[in-house]
Amino acid sequence: MTEVIPAAAFDGLAERYDAQFTATALGAVLRKMSWRRFERAFAGREYLLDIGCGTGEDAIHFAKLGHRVVATDASLQMVRMATRKAELAGCVRDIRFVWAPMERLGAELAGETFDGVYSNFGAINCAPDLVTLPRDIAPLMRPGAPLAWVVMGRYVPWEWAWYLARGDAHTAFRRMRAGGVAWRGLQVSYPTPATLARLVQPYFVPRTVTPLGLLLPGSYAAPLFERVPRVLAALARAEHSLQRWHVGGAFADHYCFEARRQFV
Ligand SMILES: C[S@@+](CC[C@H](N)C(=O)[O-])C[C@H]1O[C@@H](n2cnc3c(N)ncnc32)[C@H](O)[C@@H]1O
Q1: Looking at the DSSP assignment, which residues form a beta bridge with residue 212?
Q2: What values do phi and psi take at 260, rounded to 5?
């Protein structure tokens, strides 16, 4: 395991990722919302692929629900952290951890047939090529199998307001930059739901787009929301109502993009 993988960018974040996001009140609310979508999509589907598993929070959740999961990530430290957490959670036997970037999953997992594929909280935004990713993932999936990706959005009024109020127009509008944003050696892109639908369409049938952070803010506001739990709960309730109607995904911090593998 000596090869250098570009998305080792996340290696330095593995130790503190859960404290800074997963374990915050805001992070917990958002993840629960993503699980609601995933659980609905993958009900009765046994074998799941997690792309960019991070610290393994989702893989552990789905293993506990009885699924078998192949959890993959380009960051070795993330994979190590996830493995440790799965051991502690007592479900490491139901998860196969694979240290590999998503751009290599077609080759790494050739011959596998997944009943569903998910990716949570922005791993897809780190894809070096969003044209080839759907082409590589599709052959790993059963025809008709669901795909659910939680992707960072492009147009985010909450974030504009947050950073403009601090006089930081550069950060406020960075997601709209042509060619994406350079970050720790990665090029992070922010596709709209419509762009993503177009990119996956040769292999998938797009179904729904659900906001995850339209009324709720992004993780930059997590420390603030630790102090106002009632406001967080009220916004979460309102957001939940919007999610039922699948409105506003194009203007959310993240959106859950759901599609089905084509039958051809
Ligand atoms: C923001 S974290 C999300 C982690 C996890 N899915 C979650 O919900 O907490 C993004 C993850 O994507 C991984 N990642 C980035 N680029 C990747 C790539 N090219 N292939 C696979 N994983 C990648 C990172 O290492 C990181 O663990």
Answers
A1: 254
A2: -125, 140
Query: Is the Cβ atom of 216 under 6 angstroms away from ligand 1?
Result: no
Q: Which of 4, 15, 73 to mutate to test the pocket of ligand 1 (most atoms within 8 A of CB)?
A: 73
- Whether the per-residue pLDDT at 174 is higher than 70: the answer is yes
Q: 125 in ligand 1 pocket by Cβ < 6 Å?
A: no
Pocket lining: 27 vs ligand 1, CB cutoff 6 Å: no
Asked if 48 and 67 touch (Cβ cutoff 8 Å), the reply is: yes
- Ligand 1 atom closest to the Cα of residue 6 is 19
User: Measured from the CB, is residue 73 less than 6 Å from ligand 1?
Assistant: yes
Ligand 1 lined by 137 (C-beta under 6 Å): no
Condensed to tens digits (0 to 9), the pLDDT of residues 52-89 reads 999 999 999 999 999 999 999 999 999 999 999 999 99
Cα Rg of the chain (Å, integer)? 17
**Cβ atoms of 149 and 119 closer than 8 Å:** yes
Mutate to test the pocket of ligand 1, among 10, 61, 190 (most ligand atoms within 8 A of CB): 10
What are the residues whose beta carbons fall under 8 Å from the beta carbon of 254, sequence distance 6 or more?
A: 30, 34, 121, 122, 150, 151, 152, 153, 211, 212, 213, 218
Is any atom of ligand 1 closer than 6 Å to the C-beta of 24?
Answer: no
The answer to whether 68 touches 61, Cβ cutoff 8 Å, is no
What is the per-residue DSSP string for 38-105? HHHHHTT--EEEEES-TTSHHHHHHHHTT-EEEEEES-HHHHHHHHHHHHHHT-GGGEEEEE--GGGH
